[in-house]
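Example 3.
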Amino acid sequence: MSDPSYAVGLDFGTESGRAVLLDCRSGDVLASSAVRYPSAVIDRTLPSSGEELPGDWALQDPDDWVTVIERAVPQVLEEAGVPAEAVVGLGIDFTSCTVLPVTSEGVPLCTLEEWRDRRHAWPKLWKHHAAQPVADRLTEVALEREEGFLSRYGGRISSEWYFPKLIEVWLEDREVYDACAAFIEATDWVVWWLTGTECRQTATAGFKAMWSPEDGLPSTEYFEAAYPGFDQPGEKLGERFVPLGSKAGPLRAEVAKKTGLPETTAVAVGNVDAWVSVPGVGVEDPGTFVIVIGTSICDMIVHPEETRLPGITGVVKDGILPGQYGYEAGQAAVGDMLAWFVEQVAQDPGSYGELEKGAAALQPGETGLVAFDWWNGNRTILGDADVTGAILGLTLQSTREQIYRALLESIAFGSRRIMDNFEEHGLVLSEIVACGGIAERSPLMMQLLADTSGRRVHVPEVQEIPARGAALFGAVAAGVYDDIASAITATRPERVRTYEPDLEAKRTYDRVYEIYRTLYDYLGRSEVRLLHELKRIRVERRGG
Amino acid sequence: MSDPSYAVGLDFGTESGRAVLLDCRSGDVLASSAVRYPSAVIDRTLPSSGEELPGDWALQDPDDWVTVIERAVPQVLEEAGVPAEAVVGLGIDFTSCTVLPVTSEGVPLCTLEEWRDRRHAWPKLWKHHAAQPVADRLTEVALEREEGFLSRYGGRISSEWYFPKLIEVWLEDREVYDACAAFIEATDWVVWWLTGTECRQTATAGFKAMWSPEDGLPSTEYFEAAYPGFDQPGEKLGERFVPLGSKAGPLRAEVAKKTGLPETTAVAVGNVDAWVSVPGVGVEDPGTFVIVIGTSICDMIVHPEETRLPGITGVVKDGILPGQYGYEAGQAAVGDMLAWFVEQVAQDPGSYGELEKGAAALQPGETGLVAFDWWNGNRTILGDADVTGAILGLTLQSTREQIYRALLESIAFGSRRIMDNFEEHGLVLSEIVACGGIAERSPLMMQLLADTSGRRVHVPEVQEIPARGAALFGAVAAGVYDDIASAITATRPERVRTYEPDLEAKRTYDRVYEIYRTLYDYLGRSEVRLLHELKRIRVERRGG
């Protein structure tokens, strides 16, 4: 490690992608460059034909991903001013489960003249929710058959996952289904494009395709019971998956030429945007609860033991860090909900700062309000897309700032509820590490996470966390570090802002949380039919 | 009735008073004049001493009431241009229970040098809530002793009523208590001032002082059990009460001179602002639900039979119209709550029209929201000042207009809940008559009352309804009509805007109302401790 060496991290989000250049020794990000996808999220009309897309559809264009690589990589090389030949590794992360049908050569079907007018030929973005009926059917049959795999996923299969999206193609466009050699996670497809080698990793297989190293995929009998005739579940997915941190191969010559990277650059197997934040913020120890808090929240913990518990998104071996069980949970509306309040209710997009300041001047409990952040359903614990948000305790004296604070508190209570769920099932959580846009922008939100949970909250002062985490995997693939744990230890961010829990605030919040939990169980569970019926009426009336 | 004759109506509100001049034959209001009280509501410092008032205190200055009479009456006489000698009667209405201590000559203690620095010497406005502990104690003891009178008041004594306010004086300033010859409703005091004759009426005695023609006042034993030593409950109240519509006397010469009215003007006994709206809008029949909808809602019905039922403010014989049982109920935050949304949340006082328009363009059920209008507690059915408002069903797609509509719907559901309560106890309600500021300004609110309840809503197109109703009692006192029923029949407003219930809307609202009722019982009754605890925490933290 005496010579300088560098790694590229590529981070593919929902609206844009970015590249960073990382100094492998220090872990410092030397340069970064973001590129917006020219076609953005495709959710209204199909670009090829102009066909109107049904509701709940969300697609992407793979050419946009290539554009990101071809533009952003040369830019970071130039900006950092390091010799290109000193770049040794490259790692990527992508949204998940974003999946696309490709030929046996890895060519996306939607880029071929023959298929580009077929909407099922395009990549389905993670938030494509049109396969909800398939997901419901798969959950139902798994429950009926008492399938053991279901308990790894908190008891529920999401419409965002691999098989709902694949079976949707199988049901609705059998020609596309038959024409594709593979139906592949975009993260794995990018690696294929970079290296010329198909190489799928264990993490998305585990979290999104119900695969596990011990049991493989759910049985053919299970799929046949749900969808008679769907009898080759592994046909488009493959059955061989390699661990995170593995090297997929060197760069293709053509890619090297276009990007200016050396052909020797070691490309790590694909990864997922939320999960790479764990190494990105320097976490590798069990007991640390990592919260990526932005538009929504993704929570992650790693632990040497497997505990199957309800109310999580999943627990997967090697799913976040190799050698550990990765646990995922989350909250569906966070920054989204705050933006809704500021833009739709207050109608004053410039008022964030003022609202945060006003809210911060209030005492815990002083709002007299309690809110449920179910503006976009509840991802975990309830796993229910049809519950909706609530604010209780309103009076003529309630102010905008009080409501804003109550929304922040609802996010904090939601997080505490999730942490309580882990602890009630034996997973001790000692500290919180938070990152993402809101961790940087809202000290009040961080203090509330500390005060409601009684745990220290650490916010590492480091930029471009997911891309940084991806680059660390690139450094591991290049052999700069023996494994990701060594890479994390060597590059752990030095500057960390820590929020200490205020114990008096905690005592007050414990009282409010008691109220919250009781209402949570009533509105979200025992009488959840009330919120469901409210939504049903709304949907019927809007349709009519 | 061949000669033209006129009556004056005087309406004393919370912030201002007004006079109208009524043509007794047609019922037309020929002129009106409003005067703001120079001292407004006294709720911060005592005008005489500058002493800071405790929270929940609200006083008025009796000189302000005199100012209204001396200014507004000459103005309406002049504006109408009718000969003063043709004015035959005068009626007044006042907020209630607004009460003051006076000497045996009817001089308010607070106008005397000796007493004016004592806060208990001043008139306590209806919304003076500092006697809440007394009210709670009186309710508690009435329940313990199974006092029969309590069932006339829905099971609860309000802090706004006569005895809580009187006992507050007795407890906190015995000198003022001993010094006053009488503690009197402001409505009766104004009549005393106008005529020189003390003449208290049955209506406030019944609704606010727990008196009834059959049983008189609650027993001395009851009061002694609650407050040992308080053994002369009738001492400051008197025990003789005359029916509404009676003549108290002619005008004092001095008043006649100052106002320009003839000394022969017959002055009717006092009345209350909400109740005079019943004759004011032309209602005298059982089965009509009168809603006065403004800052808050006061609901009234008259019926020949007495039914004691929970969840009302009171049922009093001769309480609204002589010869009938008057029932009162209400909602605590209505216009107040809408103003809160427009001013505090939207922060755009000019947006009422836009919000009403946007809300009116939505379908029933389309908001997906359900709200509880408990922003200022719940007056009836719950009679609980400590419950607070709620909005459920919020999503990222919820709009300002949807929330505004949900607030209007919460008012309509609150009214339906009250009507259901009457009907569940055998009082059939066929139609609704609405008046007040919101009845005039919000066609959507009126349509929602119709659509949620399935009843026609009539809005009489007539101005200055309470003052008009007061003037009708003046006309009866003058003998222009034999009784108030004849006066109502003769002057019933001709122009009425009627809102027909839409049955399809009703079917949708029945489904939402099912959800509303279930949540109402949960949040307001079975688990009311949740909202109470939330408020308790708020109060503690604001104090701290």
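Residues 6-273 of chain A form a domain with the Nucleotidyltransferase; domain 5 fold (CATH 3.30.420.40). Chain A has two domains: 6-273, 283-461+502-544.
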